[in-house]
Amino acid sequence: MLFSDILFITQWWFMFFVIGIFFFPFTARLFSHFTDRGYMFSKVIGLVIISYTIFVLGITHLLPFTRIASISVALVVGSLFFIRGPSIKAIAKTSWKVLLVEECIFLLTLFFWSYIRIHQPDIHGLEKYMDFGFVNTIGRSTYFPPKDMWFTPLSINYYFFGHFMTAVLTKLSGIPSFITYNLMMATLFAFTFTLSYALI
Fold first, then answer.
1. In whole angstroms, how far apart are CA 124 and each of 89, 129, 131?
2. pLDDT band at 164 (very low <50, low <70, confident <90, very high)
């Protein structure tokens, strides 16, 4: 594993960490009976809310899909959810060990699957080529719906919100899409493992 790979993975993890912190007060209210107060779910819910907001603004042509616009939306939406919830300090005082364990598990599983993808980074087989094409097509779009890479100027006639979330994360992180595609696969593994742990 090269130093540049470690930097990309760390940058990717830190982006999710920030999203989680912003949305943790909101999930702490939603998952008030959970031991971790929904800490791990804050990352997923935050990503979904940010992505949907950017999508609505893009499909109504109110805001272009650029990196600056995406970061601005993430900060504004995240701030709104951050200030409307219980204090993180109060929760951390009683549950900091659980939160630390979950964050470590998320980081370790993210590194683990990224390490596997580093040794097999090729994007081929099954629907991977199409998935990668959709992520790039969405990333190049200014407004939505994005153009179909095979039938331009027609728009994509396929469910693409998962691809869209990957494109949003690509914009937010500033990492090239051929790297974020594999990082997203590692993230799915990390979330599957960590969210299962949080539920149990």
1. 46, 6, 10
2. very high
pTM here is 0.91
Q: Residue ranges of the alpha helices (H) in the chain?
A: 3-30, 39-59, 67-83, 88-119, 128-140, 161-173, 177-199
Cβ–Cβ under 8 Å, residues 50 and 168: yes
* Per-residue pLDDT at 57: 97
Beta bridge partner(s), residue 178: none
Q: Is 63 left (phi over 0), alpha (psi -120 to 50) or beta?
A: beta
Q: Which residues contact 129 (CB under 8 A, 6 or more apart)?
A: 123
For the chain, the first-to-last Cα distance in angstroms comes to: 32
Let me know: does 182 contact 121? Beta carbons within 8 Å.
Answer: yes
Tens digit of each residue's pLDDT (9 = 90 or more) over 102-151: 999 999 999 999 999 888 888 877 788 888 999 999 999 999 999 988 88
User: Cis bond leading into 121, ω under 30°?
Assistant: no
Task: Point out the least confidently predicted range of 11-25, 72-86, 134-148.
Answer: 72-86
CB distance 139 to 165 below 8 Å = no
Q: Using alpha carbons only, give the angle 115, 39, 95 rounded to the nearest 5 degrees.
A: 110
